[in-house]
Amino acid sequence: MSSPRRRIDLRSLPKLRDGLSYLHVERGRIERDDASVAWYGPEGAVAVPVAGLAALFLGPGAVITHAAMVVLADNGVTVAWVGEGGVRFYAAGTGETRSSRNIERQARAWADPDERARVARRLYEFRFAERPPEHLTLEQVRGLEGVRVRTAYARAAKQHGIVWKGRNYRRDDWQAGDPVNRALSAGNACLYGTCHAAIVSLGFSPALGFLHSGKVHSFVYDVADLYKAEVVIPAAFAAAAAAADDIESRVRHHLRDGFRSSKLLGRIAKDLLRLFDL
Question: What's the CA gap between 55 and 262, in Å, rounded?
């Protein structure tokens, strides 16, 4: 007999703070298994801990049933479709959200030019622990941010003895990229998915960005930028310095463990609410 399905209210934050950050699956089939789901591969079935999961990443060859999606949605799990090795973020199915309060607050801030500029400046302040000069335009703030990011790349390259030729990769020829650029892209995709899970779980829109705009994931990029220099850049350069083989997988696993041990999802949730004075 199937056990009753357990519903989780994501308006309370303990699950988001305490759950696994994400699980990445390539190939195989995800199906409903009583009140949970399971992954079916060549070696048989593996249970997926949906009650403690924030996001499920599906790579090439992974198939999921409608019934499994229902269970995942009921448990507030964001499902994301990603490229091979988890290095590209294509689309996502939202988790469980019942209140429109947060997205209404975000939309009001996004639609008001003065409030939009204020939120953009707060993002900069959150990231660099200092306020940008008041006389700078948003475009100038973006430029200042870019300078700091390039400095972070150069510092990490020097620390790990890597020749850094700049951020460069080709989506149509992934293997042509150097190891550190592939590691950075793989790490960023992990961070984007985790931030996306936090954003939709708390009832915000991933599209209404403040420093980024015009993309369906603009706000995801805004939020992810708060943590890139802290978590992705060090991991990517360290992995590239250690070995070039299977670098995407090594970075992905390193970040997954790091996200959980540092309780990154809890930080993202707290920063999102603080950003809009909620």
Answer: 17
**Which CATH class, in words, describes the domain spanning 14-93?**
alpha beta
Question: Would you place residue 54 in the very low, low, confident or very high pLDDT band (cuts 50, 70, 90)?
Answer: confident
What is this structure's pTM?
Answer: 0.72
The CA-atom distances, in angstroms, between 154 and each of 125, 141, 255 are 22, 20, 21
CATH number listed for the domain at residues 101-275: 1.20.120.920
Return the closest-CA partner of residue 25 out of 76, 62, 52.
62
Beta bridge partners of 29: 40, 63
pLDDT at 2 over 50: no
Least confident of 58-67, 150-159, 206-215, 262-271: 262-271
Contact at 8 Å (CB) between 194 and 22? Answer: yes
- Judge contact between 202 and 274, C-beta under 8 A: no
What are the E-state strand segments in the chain? 23-25, 28-33, 36-41, 44-48, 55-58, 62-64, 78-82, 89-93
Q: Kindly give, in sequence order, each residue whose CB lies less than 8 Å from that of residue 148, ignoring residues fewer than 6 positions away.
A: 128, 229
Average pLDDT, the chain: 81
